[in-house]
Amino acid sequence: MSEIRAAGGVVWRPSDRGVEVCLVHRPRYNDWSLPKGKLEPHEHPLAAAVREIAEEADVRAVPQARLRSVRYFSDGRPKVVDYWAMRAVGAGGFEPETEVDDIRWLPVEEAIGLVTYPHDVWVLREFADLPPVTAVLAVFRHARAGNRATWSGPDTARPLDPAGLVQAGQVATLAALLRPEGLWSASARRCVQTLEPLAALLDLPIEVDSHFDEPKPGQDVSECALAGAARMAELAATGRTVVISGQGKVIPGALEHLTGASDDYRTPKGEGWLLAFTTDHLTSATRL
């Protein structure tokens, strides 16, 4: 039996009562819950979460950190809902044909007392335990660029292949949801090209930064990873949302330094990570 895939979020805003989060009421079920909805065909869960929050809660929201996924049965079928913590940045996108007839903004503890389902309580408590997010970085490995062995020119000049150009467009669609304020790239042509569709979409320049380059002959991989991690922390300390295009030999080691954990941070080409920081301290790292 195929599972139902859905996505949503804990959307927050500051208020005189502190942080408030958004709940929606569905008259069909007479329940209060976090805004969420089913994925459209081939839709990324993060894109679905942003879209559903706009349609159900009339909120333009910016993702900040990954929260848990919850699993339960709906109409006899297994259902998985992925959640993100998101900051409300404006209104708009409401669809009047949705199942929602009321929206409330409440302090977290009041929201916990109102929601109908235990899994929403779990997600809200995880959000409450998350340190305040002051900066978000999205770190991508460059998209596909053919075979190094069959490229006759300098490796730094190797361009994206047709599949890589498609991946670069997908990176742009996903990364634009974060509303980045700056774009940084390793110096290799394929890294810069990976961000070019996003740069065109947002009308932002791409800053080339060798801290995200793979080691040159004679350079130590761990030293390059440490330098990449330090540069990410510097960018996070500015409090901005930044997208980085880096190389595969740098990203795993840099994330190990930032997290202090020896997890599997290998990153396929064209894929990446969502990093949430409190000042220059990494508090959350999840695959996009």
From TrEMBL:
<dbReference type="GO" id="GO:0006167">
    <property type="term" value="P:AMP biosynthetic process"/>
</dbReference>
<dbReference type="Pfam" id="PF00300">
    <property type="entry name" value="His_Phos_1"/>
</dbReference>
<protein>
    <submittedName>
        <fullName>8-oxo-dGTP diphosphatase</fullName>
    </submittedName>
</protein>
<dbReference type="InterPro" id="IPR020084">
    <property type="entry name" value="NUDIX_hydrolase_CS"/>
</dbReference>
<dbReference type="GO" id="GO:0004081">
    <property type="term" value="F:bis(5'-nucleosyl)-tetraphosphatase (asymmetrical) activity"/>
</dbReference>
<dbReference type="InterPro" id="IPR015797">
    <property type="entry name" value="NUDIX_hydrolase-like_dom_sf"/>
</dbReference>
<dbReference type="InterPro" id="IPR051325">
    <property type="entry name" value="Nudix_hydrolase_domain"/>
</dbReference>
<dbReference type="GO" id="GO:0006754">
    <property type="term" value="P:ATP biosynthetic process"/>
</dbReference>
<keyword id="KW-0378">Hydrolase</keyword>
<dbReference type="InterPro" id="IPR000086">
    <property type="entry name" value="NUDIX_hydrolase_dom"/>
</dbReference>
<dbReference type="InterPro" id="IPR029033">
    <property type="entry name" value="His_PPase_superfam"/>
</dbReference>
<dbReference type="InterPro" id="IPR013078">
    <property type="entry name" value="His_Pase_superF_clade-1"/>
</dbReference>
<dbReference type="Pfam" id="PF00293">
    <property type="entry name" value="NUDIX"/>
</dbReference>
<feature type="domain" description="Nudix hydrolase">
    <location>
        <begin position="2"/>
        <end position="129"/>
    </location>
</feature>
